[in-house]
Every structure is written in C-alpha cells, then in structure tokens.
Amino acid sequence: MTSKPYSRSNNGVRLPLAHLYLQNDVYYFYLEGHPNHVTFIIPTKFQVLESCKPTSKKPPTIYIIFRNPIQQCLRQLSLKFERKDVSKISSDLWRRIDSNLRTRFENLYHQTIEEWRKGRLIFEFFNPLAESSAEYEQNNPDSPVPNSPDSVSSSVEFENKLSYRENQLVIGELFGWGYVPLIAGYNKYLESP
Q1: For residues 70 and 55, which has the higher predicted lDDT (pLDDT)?
Q2: Fewest CB within a 10 Å sphere: which of 77, 141, 151, 160?
Q3: Helix (H) or strand (E) segment spanning residue 69
C-alpha cells in the first residue's frame, strides 16, 4: 500500500493544527497529534532568491517566503500533503505567529525584494528587446534582415523597461558615477572620488 498525500478534500478530515514555539533563540515546528518537533529554519534573503525561478517576473511574496520553511518542516516530519493543504496550514499558522517572528519575515521580505530588484535592474538593462541580425537570419532564412540595405526601410524601436531613475541608478552603479542634480531638469554624472 503506497501512502498518498493527505488531503482534506479526499477524506473530509480536518487538517492538523500547526504550531511554532521559541526555545533558546530557536523556533520549533510541530503539528498537534504528532509526537515529533523539528527546527523551523528562517531562510536568508539569498536562500529565498535561490528558490525563485530565474524567469520570474515578480519577487516572491511574504506568504511564499513563510510557506517554504513550513513545507520543509512537514517533509522533515515525513508527512505528505497536497500543495493546497500545505498552503492552508501555512496561512492558518501565519495568522497566529508571534509579532517578533512576523517582523522578522516582513524584514526578510523587504530585503529580498530590494535584492531581487537589483538583480532585475541589471538583467533588464542588458536584456535586448529585439533579435540580433544573426538570430533573425537564423529564424527567418528566406526574409531579408531588417535595416539591411536589401530590406525595406524600417526602424527597430527599443522599448526601455526601466524608469528614468532606474536607468540612472544602473548607469551610476555600472560606471561608478555619482548622480548630481545641478539644475532642475538637467542631470549630470560626475565621477566619484
């Protein structure tokens, strides 16, 4: 007999109630009715970012950041739950955690977003929005390359994904320049000492 994931929807049984408690500056996780307790590990911002998909368009939510350690704890307890049930256990526990732990996760969330955006700024700055002529020729062997003498005159427009301020930040960080507004509406970059 193989063990199937526990599901409230399959058998009508209530999900177990999860708890976290603090002992000697370490949080422990347990489920009511289960004899074992496991260490609840709060991830770092880099661990959270490593768990994200590289093509993700949005940073992870605070809920996902909290849910992943819960899922790991359930695995350590050798319990299998369907994804929706893990989500229900996590959201129920989130409503009941102490304010210190909630603050730690909120701070982690803000740090993660900031780090994620830094990575995205560089990625979006260097990500071309149009195919190179070599890629175009490879994908369209019978068509002339746009903007080549053989093709009809057409312009390729690059759409900037970054805001003006984000462009300034990226350029400043890439070239080590400091942003100095001299006159309203006129900005100048000067090399930092």
Answers
A1: 70
A2: 141
A3: helix 62-76
